[in-house]
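Thread: quick sanity check before group meeting

JM: Hey all, I'm pulling together slides for Thursday and realized we never actually wrote out the predicted structure for the chain we discussed last week. Dropping the sequence here so it's in one place. If anyone has concerns about the input, flag it before I start.
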Amino acid sequence: MANVKVSPRFRRLCNQFASILGGEHEIDPGPVCFVSRSRNLKATILGRRTTSPLVRYQLFSFESLDSSGRALCLGETALFQNQANRLIE
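JM (edit): ok, ran it. Output follows.
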């Protein structure tokens, strides 16, 4: 975890966020709570097997926490084609 000064509340929220998502977390300057989660996928793209971290990892963050508890939340993940419609619906 980066050595960033944050409130105990922010640190607790980041720990809970990582626990809910089942990933590893770090706190970056900002502060930004960053969570990564590795998946063990057997994926192919255009018929070629890939082990790229861009496919294997899910990334999530929150930052800019305001006094009412709202934050800017971001996420990135790769999907299989058969999962795309379920995500969009």
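AS: nice. Strands lie at 24-28, 32-38, 43-45, 48-50, 57-63, 72-76. The longest helix spans residues 8-21.
JM: adding both to the slides.
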